[in-house]
Amino acid sequence: MVSFSSLDPNKLPLKVCLRVIKAIRRLKDAIPFNQPVDPILLNIPNYFKVVKNPMDLSTIEKKLTVNQYTSTVDFLKDCQLMFENCYTFNGELAPVSIMGRNLQRAVHQKLEKCQSEFDQQQRRKSETSTKPAKTAEVARPKREVHAPPREAVSPDKLKSERKRDKTMAFCSQLLRELVSRKYAQYNTPFLFPVDPIAQGVPHYFDIIKHPMDLSTVRKKLEQGEYGSMDEFQEDIRLMFRNCREFNLKGSEVYEMGVKLEKIFDEKWKLRPMGNAVAFGSKSKGGRKNSSDDDEPQVPAIQPKIMEMAQRIETLQQTLSLLKSTQQQPSKKRKSSVGPGGAEKKSKSKSSGAGKRGGKKRGRGSDDENVANLPEVTYQQKEEISRSIAEFDEEYQEKAFDIIRSAMPEINVRF
Asked: What pTM does this model have?
């Protein structure tokens, strides 16, 4: 039978004993010992005749909490008393006594472990206290510390870094658009990596050898792993190819991928091309930077300028014709009202010929001209706005002057 007499009370502080008791009370064998014995509930009315000094784990824990023990020796005596009461009343072979022996062994092992930890702490303290003190080091003159010279950066390298920053900023903005709530009905399957187990597709990696998703693209973008916009685009295209390869055509995820790729295609058309960036490439003074004079202008922007100029001219003609048609009815109403009032108006309706009929045909021809002009849709207006933003400041001013002259009531700012 395990005895607590082999333990050294001086190496077991009462705080450690309290921690041990709280841990012991959670064991399965501690159930009969957690609370005081209730003779009536347990139907053992003779318990207090046999056991004169009852003890249990809750009483021991309470005495430790309120500092009722003056030393660890008193604590160990109460533990020993609790187990002896169990063996005395139930006998050595009773199931409760077997649980008591298991519990007593567990308490003894935990206390022994705490005792060994105490010995190790004391040993470390003694080792540090016996180490010889370090001799005072001879004072040496302090050495001046100079920062290493900065590496000279060539203008070409700075220019390429600035261009890369602009292109990567465009990629970041485009990625934010793709993952935004605006396109939540399409982007949900592509926000995070595919989990074959959670999504019930255990064969996913058998088909898709190079998985890709928008969160991985964002991580690579933030860590500067993309050397160019083409590398960024390739990962986005890889994600859509994986979607079409794994999912059946016509399925929900397949169609979501097709629609999201169309959105990407539309926005990818607005990417900066060479010197042409989204918001102009001139200095504050309106003159081009000297570093940009050596590079040829990108010819890709010229067709856009011509196309936008034609659309603005068409819009200007439409506005002027609409204004003329709004002014004509009021003048003609004044000329048609005479002394006869409604009678003259009824006559004009019944005549159906003459000069006035010719005027009606002329007004009809104006209406036909207005109707034949192409209607400027919201998408076209938005495209005009985006394209103007790609112009240099000189072209932007010309475009705004055209819009102001055609529609002076609109306050156009740039």
From this structure: 0.35
